[in-house]
């Protein structure tokens, strides 16, 4: 690296990794350009709260521009990156080429349906605000539809939610949906009993939360049971249809199916490297760069690297943030002619929330389950939320919902026409239909 | 009316009129069924705050079920009403017939494009949460697009918002968008100067806020000028195209056009009566019923009636609420064998907000403009918001935004692919495109 007074750093992706890179370069003599397809950072660990009507999108997402507003060496652009010319040090976007001295690719991952892309419209995953709103809509509509059937026809189909995948996202969705059905909704319905809702969590492996020690997995499973969730481990989902799922020979009728079973890295990974792993992740050098490209960093869920002890660095927010800080430090080292160092992931613990007073937590040296794990989870997540306003509002919303058992964001923001359409054509989930216009107009 | 111990009251529409009817029948021996196409009540007077990124939908909307949760004589159903059989006392919905003893139709109104329905996708109006989110998306994208152009190509097109219609909605949208452009956004953009944003309010009549006295209209126009809005009165919009509007021979290039020029009543009005007026409203008897149908009430924006003094009752929330209470009283009178009375609208005043510290207010006996009008507006609107939690959160949001000049809900919840699409095909606004899926998947 030569000493450039204002090296141009292009960061792709405003998630945990990208934002940490940017903020830790605040005082460096660099020009930073942050590119993202969305105008906001999403605090993904709380997305399940939006999906389960506990929080509003604006409480867990913040405009990237506002976040870096005071950082004078940084610009934000809404742009879609289409590829790279690594030799010429250029990022291709839809309608422009952008030059860089340093490139930091932190484009993350999305769901993977394991060669069953046709399942996506039938079983949405949870990665974006839009995903969360779609899940919220489907979950709430399932209860509305049952109530409608019961009120008009005297009976209704069972309400069954199937959640595929027993990792942290599947566990928190299953636990929270079951909790909402059993505590928030019953008083609001007259013809159905939401406490009879079935929530089934299906995991292909032998236990939920496989990244945790076995005793915490067992505790999580117990806590899920207490919240009313049926857990089926060592069970493979073989088919997803509009209102049923197959697990081998077992067919389960479902109201709503949700997907939390796998992720696949951004296709930008393959634009960077031909060596991506089976999850689309780019293998990086110990300094998180591409081989032969010390100026190109790949971090977060898009990268795969092992710690010196041989354990792979997990695809979690703390790892992405540590990588982001490492990249900022490495660029600073370059600029100061200091030698580079190697990235080491420092595992400070692992938390997973399950529902009210229910969570598991693994810290170096000790473990927690239940209420205290849940309190730790709450505290840490409010602490890391971006923006004082969000922290305050989320605390109020949680206190409110903890004391009253109410979920405040139970809005179905779509037209009921869609409900009708789903009834008549259950496999039309994926069609983004325009709202049905019931009001006719005429010259006035 | 005969003395039915549990007369069945069907209320269509969970707006101001419908909800007041329901809540004032709380202690009557009736069975109430509230039908709505949406699962939530929308506090329409604050929708412009959602459209301008100041509030989140869940802060101004509340699930109908939660609102009537404790009212044991009331059920809520998500349903789309398709018509009536008044002779058989039946409401038709998409897939069921519902019987009633009393029917209260409070289905409201939507935008009217005056025989130019093709303008709707080019100039959205503001009646629902979905409308507000669409306006928010377009307004925020206009700034993002200009910043992108300026950053990548060194220049950008002027940012111009045209708001058609100088009633309360047009005035508050114009004032607030101009205020946001001049106070909230400048610090966040590096390549454009949002304070140069043009906001043009176009009114066909001779003055804005025609329902107010002339001096208040004049004051509103002055306050709009102070906030940077250009007001064009006595100006007819003759054509709306994707990026320009025509006012006779004058052509104005626009970034975003918004529609606040007219409303047309729900088509349910025409299903009830052949005598609807030019705005689709149903003329009702002095007791708000249909002629020859003392059991069928039509209220709110769907009804047209004159006060005893000959002045038409305005289509505002207080009028709808008074009508709702009157209907509840009339049904109670029937049940108690008391004679019916006539509806009289009690005009307690009229407020319109314009922007920060800017509003006009007309109360019986006195008028206010500017800061004190704005304070009254704020106070009254927080007071009438449904739900303690909403009141608290909205107060916090407003205090936050008043002190910091920040807008907290600046989320563009759609994919940037849409931005690209709009650039390449500017007249594709109306196509509800599915989010662009950039992440490819494969077997993992």
Automatic annotation (TrEMBL), chains A, B:
Gene3D superfamilies given in the database record: 3.50.50.100
Gene Ontology MF annotations: NADH dehydrogenase (quinone) (non-electrogenic) activity
E.C. numbers: 1.6.5.9
One Pfam family named in its UniProt record: Pyr_redox_2
Residue stretches making up the External alternative NADH-ubiquinone oxidoreductase-like C-terminal domain: 348-403
Ranges annotated as spanning the membrane: 371-388
Keywords: FAD, Flavoprotein, Membrane, NAD, Oxidoreductase, Transit peptide, Transmembrane, Transmembrane helix
InterPro entries: FAD/NAD-bd_sf (IPR036188), FAD/NAD-binding_dom (IPR023753), NDH-2 (IPR045024), NDH2-like_C (IPR054585)
SUPFAM superfamilies from the UniProt entry: FAD/NAD(P)-binding domain (SSF51905)
Family: Belongs to the NADH dehydrogenase family.
Protein name from the UniProt record: NADH:ubiquinone reductase (non-electrogenic)
The organism of origin for this protein: Koribacter versatilis (strain Ellin345)
